[in-house]
From TrEMBL:
Pfam families: ABC_transp_aux, DUF7088. This is Gliding-associated putative ABC transporter substrate-binding component GldG. The keyword ATP-binding does not apply. Keywords: Membrane, Transmembrane, Transmembrane helix. Residues 191-490 form the ABC-type uncharacterised transport system domain.
């Protein structure tokens, strides 16, 4: 009897000690194979550094199909992890807009969410043999110190199956929420600095969406390349669609900026297309005086233009319907749609949606010691490469292409370079040269990305309202491509690959059930799931009684 009391007292004492220790020592154990509940280091640091309350209203809840319910659970689990790290500084609430009974209140909420950028998704479900349609908002609003930003939770490649797209959204939940919190909570003076090299005649309104998006996370400055002295006090330079040659002195400044650890992102063309008519115009070779610099870094922008069978459409008058023109959307091979990402595990392009290219050239990689090259944007295998000067005509869309002539294969149009870059001007700077002061032939490790399409970062304009359209928005098909996501991901990675962008590396493996076996063995598994727990409990009871009888029979 005394031994039983001693064991009971010892168990109670251990439980008390464990509870006391757990009040002061925090730990959680993630036993999943993919570590799906383990936050990235950057996200943990972000949450632990919060100085005020962050509140998240999630509108993805209620009666949802199984795939969306899984996404809702992923959001809930992620927010629980956020709360475990940040404590009382993170709060959240799930709101079902469809559960609001007051029609006026519901409509006001719908309007507010859409104004914030949360667009509804119409889902169709079969309930009891009936087709049921429901409008859901797969998104959230994050607020901090009176500021608010929208988070789109349904993200992924629209060319994938619905199940794959939902899984991609599942994988991106941490990044989407952490990026929103970072945007709202970055204190003044701690933001990274991005310099814009505006070496172009493109109107500023055509870059407005890109620049506004960059300014949400970074301090943006205009770089005056004519100003004497090096490029300094910047983390990255952004060079969008230059159309004028750089001088040797400007090339030298960019060279030394990268050699000294600065990062650079280029969107350049290999040819110039000034305007396009029905019968066409010539795409002329474009010399930006960057060939030698790019070659030293490990890439070459070719003087050509890509035609791709996987392409966007343009409106074209194909005839008349009575007394009115017959306008139809026809595929135009000069507008490739990019859905081929060289390294799909790189966080820049992981689970990225389609990217819209226009009048793009090709890239070749060349030998560059110490530089690791990662192709990220590639065309489809069905391409035709035209050497500039080449005719670009709208009427080309009328022609039925011969697939056998589109044998150019997969071509690179975006490449990431990482490593210790060597200066183009090594052994060329004499001691008496004013640029010799502080010159470095090889410096610290850095990162550069070159895309051979300047139009990737150029937004269209609504001329009726005289307002810029979102970057990547095709006004003819009303489709928004992932040009902006790609650019912002690239900036995030180039500046800090271990930052919040690293959360995009999360992988959640789909493990679908065998539907054929499920149908044929349905009854067997139902019976097993019903009876097995009862039998197990019964066996435990029998064993326990047997042990007790033997113990007390003595």
């Amino acid at each position: 009897m005394k031994s039983a009391l001693l064991r009971t007292g010892l168990i109670v004492a251990v439980l008390v000690v464990v509870n006391i220790v757990s009040a002061f020592v925090f730990f959680r154990v993630d036993l999943t194979e993919e570590k799906r509940y383990t936050l990235s280091t950057a996200t943990r640091n972000l949450l632990e550094g919060l100085d005020d309350d962050v509140h998240v209203n999630v509108y993805l809840t209620g009666e949802l199909p199984a795939g969306f319910k899984r996404l809702e659970n992923a959001v809930r689990e992620t927010l629980e992890e956020f709360q475990a790290r940040a404590g009382k500084n993170v709060t959240y609430r799930f709101i079902d807009p469809d559960a609001i009974t007051n029609t006026d209140a519901k409509n006001k909420l719908f309007d507010r969410l859409q104004q914030q950028g949360l667009l509804p998704t119409n889902v169709i479900n079969n309930e009891g043999g009936k087709r049921v349609e429901k409008l859901i908002f797969p998104g959230a609003l994050v607020s901090y110190k009176g500021k608010e930003t929208a988070v789109l939770l349904l993200k992924g490649n629209k060319a994938s199956s619905p199940q794959e797209q939902l899984n991609q959204s599942y994988e991106g939940v941490e990044f989407q929420l952490a990026a929103a919190i970072r945007k709202l909570t970055q204190p003044e003076g701690s933001r990274r600095r991005v310099g814009l090299v505006a070496h172009t005649n493109v109107p500023p309104s055509r870059f407005s969406d890109l620049l506004a998006s960059v300014q949400e996370n970074y301090d943006l400055f205009f770089v005056d390349m004519s100003k004497p002295g090096p490029i300094s006090d910047l983390d990255l330079i952004l060079v969008p669609k230059p159309d004028q040659p750089f001088s040797d002195d400007e090339v030298f400044k960019m060279d030394q900026f990268v050699v000294n650890g600065g990062r650079a992102l280029f969107f350049v063309d290999g040819q110039r297309v000034d305007s396009v008519g029905a019968e066409g115009t010539f795409a002329q070779p474009l010399n930006l005086n960057l060939d030698n610099l790019f070659f030293r870094w490990g890439v070459r922008v070719n003087r050509d233009i890509v035609k791709d069978l996987r392409c966007a459409s343009i409106p074209l008058n194909v005839g008349n319907l009575g007394d009115k023109p017959n306008i139809q959307l026809l595929p135009w091979r000069f507008y490739p749609i990019i859905n081929n990402f060289g390294n799909s595990r790189n966080p820049i392009v992981r689970n990225l949606d389609l990217v819209w290219a226009r009048f793009t050239s090709t890239l070749d990689t060349v030998r560059s010691p110490g530089i690791q090259k990662t192709p990220l944007l590639l065309t489809s295998p069905y391409t035709k490469i035209l050497q500039a000067p080449a005719v670009v005509a709208y009427n080309e869309a009328r022609q039925q292409p011969d697939p056998s002539t589109y044998d150019g294969g997969v071509r690179i149009i975006g490449c990431l370079m990482e490593g210790r870059f060597q200066s183009l001007f090594a052994n060329r700077i004499l001691p008496g040269d004013p640029r010799a002061n502080g010159f470095k032939a090889e410096g610290v490790a850095s990162r550069v990305m070159v895309c051979s399409d300047g139009d990737l970062v150029v937004n269209d304009v609504d001329y009726k309202r005289n307002a810029p359209l979102p970057l990547g928005y095709d006004r003819f098909t009303r489709t928004t491509f992932a040009n902006k996501d790609f650019t912002l991901n690239a900036i995030d990675y180039l500046i800090d690959p271990e930052g919040v962008i690293s959360a995009r590396n999360r992988t959640v493996t789909l493990r679908p059930l065998d539907t054929i076996r499920l149908k044929s063995e349905r009854t067997t598994w139902q019976v097993l799931n019903l009876l097995a727990p009862l039998i197990l409990v019964g066996l435990v009871g029998v064993v326990w009684q047997f042990v007790r009888r033997r113990q007390y029979a003595r």
